[in-house]
Hints:
Two copies of one chain form a homodimer. Chain A is α/β, with parallel strands linked by helices.
Amino acid sequence: MRIELLTTGTELLLGTTQNTHGAWLGQELFKLGLRIQRQVTVPDGPAVEAAMADAVEEADVLIVTGGLGPTSDDLTRESIAAVLGLEMVEDELALRTLLAFFAQRGKVMADANRKQAMVPVGADVLPNANGTAPGLYLPPRLSGGRNCAVFLLPGPPSELYPMVQGEVLPRLKALSGLEVVPAMLEMRFVGVGESDFHQGVDEELTGIAGLEVGYCARLGEVDLRLVGTEEAIAAGREIALREFAAELVSEDGATLEEAVVRLLAAQGKTVATAESCTGGLIANRITDVSGSSEVFRYGYVTYANEAKRDLLGVRWEDLEEHGAVSEPVARQMAEGALRNADADVAVAVTGIAGPTGGSKEKPVGTVFIAVAVKGGETRVVRQLHPRSRVSFKRAVSQAALDLVRREVA
Amino acid sequence: MRIELLTTGTELLLGTTQNTHGAWLGQELFKLGLRIQRQVTVPDGPAVEAAMADAVEEADVLIVTGGLGPTSDDLTRESIAAVLGLEMVEDELALRTLLAFFAQRGKVMADANRKQAMVPVGADVLPNANGTAPGLYLPPRLSGGRNCAVFLLPGPPSELYPMVQGEVLPRLKALSGLEVVPAMLEMRFVGVGESDFHQGVDEELTGIAGLEVGYCARLGEVDLRLVGTEEAIAAGREIALREFAAELVSEDGATLEEAVVRLLAAQGKTVATAESCTGGLIANRITDVSGSSEVFRYGYVTYANEAKRDLLGVRWEDLEEHGAVSEPVARQMAEGALRNADADVAVAVTGIAGPTGGSKEKPVGTVFIAVAVKGGETRVVRQLHPRSRVSFKRAVSQAALDLVRREVA
C-alpha cells in the first residue's frame, strides 16, 4: 500500500516553522507496519491542488495536513474536490460540531468559520475535539479509477495527533488488511562510523533473508536499524554484536548520556566532570538526563589556567612547562576532580577548540581526555577532531562520555 | 527561479530522525530573496532517482541532501548521473581530499569510501572540511534542455551548513541573476514573544509599503525579519525599536551568547557561572563563542548541596532552612562565584528541572536566577518555566544570559 503525505503551509518552506508532521506520522504508521513512501511540502495556495492531483495518480493513500482553517489561504477542502471532481455541500454534523465548539467556549462563531463545514459529497467528517477544523476522509471509491483514499487533517499537533490516533489509524489498518506487523530493532553504537559497518558486516547483514538494514550516522555515533521478522532481526543483531559489542550503547533509543547515567546509577557510582575546551557541555549532557542528580554532583568548568590550579589542584609548573593542553594537565584535572568531588569516576578534557590557538605540534582540534577512577589507574588519550568549534566540542563530549561508559560498563 | 529541495533518507520517513534541512535551507535562501517552492522527501533507494527525474523537469534548481555516504544505500551520485545520462569518473581532487581527511585523523581509508570520489562528468566537486562526503554541483548545461542546476549535499548538519554557506549560496546568487538582492534586516529580541509583536507593532509594520515582515520565534527569543527597500526597512526598524529597544540583542544574526561575550570583551570584564538546574548549559553556551576565553574563566556546576557549600560557600543552614531552590541560595551562589573566581559579573541559577521534585509552593519549573556584580547590588529573580526538562534548561539559560546582558549593556 503506497502512502504519501502532503504537508501544506508557506511557513514550512520559509523555515519559520519546523515541519514535524512527517516524523511523527512516520512513527505512528510504522507501528502498523506501514510506511510513508513520499512526503511533499508545498506552500498554501494553488500548489496544493497541483500536488494533490499528482499524488492521487500514484498513491493508494494520500494524507494531507494543514489548510483546513477558516482563512482565505486555507484551500485543501476545495482543492481535493476540484481534483476528484466532487461537489461541495454543507455538512450538518460538521456545522453542529463547529457551533458547539464556539458555544462551549462562550463565543459566537465568525462567518468565516462556516466554510469549515463545507465538505465534498460522499466524504466522512472526522470530529475534532480540540479545534474548529473537522477532518475529512474520502474513501477510495470517490477517486474513481484511481482508487486512492484521501485524509484531510488539521495542522496543529494538538488537533492532528488525537485525530490520527482516533480516526486515521483504524481506517488505515482496515485499508491495508495487514495481519502481521514487522518488528524493528534500533541499535546505537558510539566510537564506530557507518563505514566501519560497511567494511565489517554490511554484506552479511544485507544477505539475511527478510531483513531490511538501515543506518543513521550522527557525529560520533551510528544507529543500525533492523526491520523484518523476529528471526531475521535476531540473526542480524548477533552479527552486529560479534563485531561491535563494545561499541553498543543502547537498543532502546537511549542516548549515550542516558546509557552512562543508567550504568552509574545501577552501580551506585558518581561521576565528576572537569572541562576546559568543552566548557560545560559534558556536564550539560549528563544533566539532560532525568535522574542524573543521583550520579552527578560536582562539575568544574576550568577555562583559565588559574581555575585548573585553584579548583583541581593542577600544578602551575606543569601548566607552564607542558601547556594547558597536555597529558599531565589532563591527568591532574581528572584526579583533582575525583578527589575534590569525592566521586567514583572523573572525566577531564583539555584541548584546542579553535579557530585560533593551534600550533604545529598541537593543531586546532587536539584534545587530551583523562578518566580517573577511585582506586584505579588514570587513563589519558590524545585525539584530534579538526572541526568547527561547536562540532569539536560535541565530538570531544562524545568521546569523553564514551570513555566513562566503557570504564563502568 | 523555481527551487526544489529533495531530502533523502529512510530515517526521515520512518520518523527516527527529524527532517530539519527544509526549515534551515528555507531561512538561508530567504536571505537572498529566494524561496523553496516544493520539498520532497523519499527513502534511500530507487525512489531517489524517480524523484530526481521528476524534479529536473520542473525546477530551475534542485537541491538534494543526503545519500552521499559510503554505504550501499547511498545512491544520489549514481542516481543523478542516470537521470541526466552522465558517465561517472573518479575525481582526483575528491580522492585527494578524502585521503587527506583520513590521514589527518591517523586512519586508513576504507575501500568503501573510494566511491565517494566518483562524480558525474562535468560536475564541480564541493569540498567538505567536516566529513568524508564531498558535495557536487552540476551546472544547468549538464541537464541538457531541461536547464536545471543540481546540488548534491551531505546530510549531517555539521557538514551541510558550512557547505551551503560557502559553496551553494554564492552559486545560487549568481544563478538567480538577481541584481538587487532585497535588503534584509534581522533583529533578534530576547524576553519578548511573537505575540507581543502582534499586539504591539505588527499592524504598523505590515502597513509600510515595500516591506515584507516575518517572524521566527524560538524558545525565549524572536527574530523580526524585515525584507524590502532600505527606506522601508529603516522605517520598520524604528517602529520595532520604539517598543522593544531594551529587548534587542543583535542586528547581525549574533546569538544571545555572542552578544554577551562581545559586551563583556568590549568592557574588559569577566563573567563566572554557578549552575545547579542548568547543569553547565550556560557555561557551554558562553564557550560556544570563539574568543570567550577572554571573558570566561571559571564555571561551577554545583548539582549537589555539598558542591554549593564547598565550591561557592553557600551556608549549610540556608540550604537546610530554605532549600536549594530559594532566593538566599541563589544569591549566595552568585556572590560566591563572583568572589572565588574574582570575576566582574557572576550569574547563578537554582531550580527544579523536573520531571520530579516539585511541590505545591515550588512546582516543577520554578527557578531563582541571581546576578552579582563587583561593587554592586546582587539581583535575584524568581521565574516559572513549566516545560520539559531540556526545554526548561534552555529557557533558564536564556533568561540568565539575558540578565547578564542587561547588566553589562
